[in-house]
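In practice, a research group might receive sequence data for several interacting partners and want a quick structural hypothesis before committing to experiments. The following worked case mirrors that situation: the sequences arrive first, and a predicted assembly follows.
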Amino acid sequence: MTRKQKRLAGIGFIAMVLAAAIGLVLVALRDEIVFFYTPTEIIEEKKAKAGQRFRLGGLVKEESLEKQGTMVKFVITDTNSDLNVRYTGILPDLFKEGQGVVAEGVLNAANTFVADSVLAKHDENYMPKEVTDSLKKQGYWQKTSDEESSSK
Amino acid sequence: MIVELGHYTLVLALALAMVQSVVPVFGAKIGHLGLMRMANQTSIMMAVLISFSFGALTWAYVNSDFSVTNVWQNSHSLQPMLYKYSSVWGNHEGSLLLWVLILSLFASMVSIFGKNLPPELKANVLGVQAWILVAFLSFVLITSNPFERLDNPPLEGKDLNPILQDVGLAIHPPMLYIGYVGLSITFAFAMAALISGRLDAAWARWVRPWTLIAWIFLTAGIAMGSYWAYYELGWGGWWFWDPVENASFMPWLAATALLHSALVMEKREALKIWTVLLAIVAFSMSLLGTFLVRSGVLTSVHAFATDPERGVFILTILVLFIGGSLTLFVLRAGILKSGGLFAPISREGALVFNNLFLTSALATVLVGTLYPLMLEAVNGAKISVGPPFFNLTFGPLMMPLLLAVPFGPLLSWKRGDLLAALSHLYWAFGAALLAIILVIAFSSDAPILAALVIGLAFWLMIGAFAEISLRTDVRKNGLAKAFDRARGLPGSTWGTAFAHFGLGVTLLGIVSVSIFETEVIKAMKVGESATISGHQLTLKGINPRKASNYNEDIINFEVLSPKGEKFIMRPAKRIYTTRRMPTTESAINTSGFSQLYVSLGEVSENNLITVRMWWKPQVTLIWLGSLFMMFGGLLSLADRRLRVGAPKRAVKQAKVETDVQVPANG
Amino acid sequence: MIFWIIAVSVTVLSIGIIIFPIFGGNQISVSTLDFDKEIYKARLKEIEEERKLGSIDEQRYQYAVAEEGRRLLTLADKNNDLNSTAILKSGKSGLYGLIFIVLVVPVVALGGYSKLGSITTPDQPLQARLEADPRSQSVEVLLKRAENQLIKNPDDGRGWLVVAPVYMRLGRYQDGVLAYRTAIRILGATTELQIALGEALTVRGGGVVSEEANELFRQANKADPENIKPMFFLAIAFNQVGKYEEAVGAWNKLIAKSSKNAPWLKVARQQLEVAKTKLGIELPGNPTTQDIEDAKQLSSGERTDFINAMVEKLAGELDENPQNKPGWQRIIRSYTVLKRKADALAAINKAQRLFKDDKTFLEELEKNKQALN
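A structural hypothesis for the assembly, expressed as tokens:
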């Protein structure tokens, strides 16, 4: 090979690797990202089909928590719509009824959300961002913060 | 008054930084020696002032001075002393002050140890460091001032977030920051080269050790953070591809690439422009990392809206430094002469290969981390990019790189011989093959891919020492002489071997725990037992205990291991009294490289406890590997060849000066 | 003043240290290339050493030496070229640098600090605050000191007895209840403690005598039938649960045993009236729907009376010790509920003045005010 050919081969190789990287990213962005929905978006707007993986966020409905051995059932609500959630495993320390929560999992045919991970409010200053946003949209956020201040 | 003096010295440091960012650079431009040299004293003075300031804040924390807002918000008088100290950087304001402190200490180290640097280069480097200091000090003072005071201080603080009250997390941020800030030095060197349009030979000699220091600390910081997440969060995971983790991983990838390209530059004066670019990229990733974690932008883009002052400031700093340095690069890179030629199959070629894959991998992580933010900013859609994304993009890009690692050190500079290199790797190849066959034979349920990756890990571990075996050659030289030779090998050769070995060890740990891990979840009462991977766990009882700032219920498990040993494991549920925040302390028992991990769910009224148990085979290898990498880095750093004396003439001149001290216009 | 002396000296010292090197050098000529040469030479030496150790083969050695040699030669070429030899000088420009430094540093440092700093705020380490002269200290500080003692020595029952009434006075009712409970656990239940705990529970419950408090008062009453306090609360409890017959009896007994100008007589008479009226309606025959409606209204009136009594007590407490945030919150809420708008507004105004540094509380007060209007 002449020097020029070598150089071309080198550039070709680099271009190949970069193309592969870009290709992988594009495929992964199409298939491997997880959308975030609220119960309303699932129940009323039917944004996700059964079997699709997504994150569900909202508040844990009061008095909805039910334990059966290591399996727990509860309801995630955005005060407009409710969705039943099933989860096997250990709930985070800060999981509480009436508190913000984000669950990731799959909707089954019976419209129950089967979660494989559950994240709870992190500390008093932090709430999963999706939850605050969607609650704000529902006009509920203001209400909760008022309650907080008046109960002090 | 101590607190206010600390505040004042911080402002004074800003004033000095402003001077420092103009005067030495101007001096270098016009060739005025005195104006260049004042940078030395100024950077040391700044380090002293900022140290005092940091000390004053620490004093306030240790003595629970709640008239300092920052102290009141993040500590409690009953915290154990260690956490009073770590509270200093366990919050936004204090951690930025720590960042600034490390930056100033590094700058003063450049001025102390930089006797062999040409004065112009040194002046420019210290000048650029001062730019960064000015930006960060103003950010701290204007938007995130840790010295804000309260007029009527409360008698008790609000306590540090309980999950941060942990030894691992007390040391983790300083480690990571030393790593981040270490990269600012290479950045400053790159900028200095672009400003003066000249890459001195000292440049490459300096860039590599500093990158090494940064890299060692980044490795330590990331490994520690990962182990902390593993045992403290109680999820048993060691890496989540969480944006916060990615924020520290990206500078690491860039630093690793820089480490390798700096080698080419130092030895062969090739890849100069690329190295300069990498130095810029690496520090940009540090800045991004610092701000991604600290600005709250990861929680939501809206964090910017709720605190616009900070948000705008951060954006400005990022744009100024990343944008500005890249612009300067585009304008000036052409002036730097590129150096030696090399064949594709050569040590240089291998290092280019390394850089190509590392930077591509870095780019995918960057896209995965920022894409959700950008999408949300553009159309409000909320997505999360999790492990599946990174497994699909980062994973495949790493495989060819790891495969190529053992070849690199065996190829000679300029023109290498792949076949000859391969012939020195037959041991490694054999070991890998054997590992693959054994895994397939003895573990029916392991996927083929897992077996192949385990083979790859052995290929890396054994192959890492091929260069040393080649260069000592026991068979030809006999043991004694080979030993002598091994001792005589440069530190960087040993360093490379250990670092690459560590990579293999970590990889082995990762595969083994992802494939062979077992998990059992069971609701248990006192007296009941559960079995996991041959271990029998019996719940013996619940002991309540009071500590200074929390109460806990310790759950005692008696464990019978498959080998018949008996031991007790004590996971616990804690409630921190001030924040009324519950946490779970998991219990871990290590045997060999493997760990038994017990975490707890809620304790219900009838004392039914949900217990989650994992058997994690070879999991400790993940962090053990990082220890090997750090050790390799240290060996490399200790390499005597990295030290160079200053030119005789300049030294003499400096001595004359201190003796005479005649004012020029006097 | 001392602060400014130190600050100015530090500033002057810093300026001195950094301007010192500006005029420290003679005019010298240093070629930056010399630094490069030094490095190439060092590298040549290393290559030799490696060869001696035998860790690099002959061919590599030749390559490496040739390369370094070539670099040294290029340097020599450059050295002849005058342009690449930087002449480093000192001179006039140093003066500009000096002026710049002397102007910028004090202006930024002193100016910046006087804008940002709070020079009037002294250091206030917790220990020192707690150890200061007790006579000059607020109740909160004294309480904190007692608390710290209790943390060190949690089995000190008398200590708990000391802090409990302070908690109650400061409106920290929950802590008060806890303190009394702990004291009882350690010292054993005496009539006095039972009464105190019962009272604390009642205050915490906003005036409602809970089951637990009721039981405590009953025990206290049994042990010491002459003590007025348990009688008072038991009577109130009868009113609250609607046992008016017993209530009337209890109030009468209480009034009989009280001295003529006892402060609780007013409330007792009021409550007695309430119970009597109530009894008068409920006694005859079957109650009509109208009766039930009336009863409801009456019982709410009775509640109002009770709240009024509590509010007066609270108002008195607040006069004594105004630094009681929960107390103000409670009294404002009570006035609002009782529709005593003027009193509510007055209380809000007073609280606003008292807590002018507490932003969140001020916002809350503002909201309360708007709700009233």
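Before designing any experiment, note the following. The two ends of chain B are 40 Å apart (CA to CA). Chain B has 22 helices and eleven strands.
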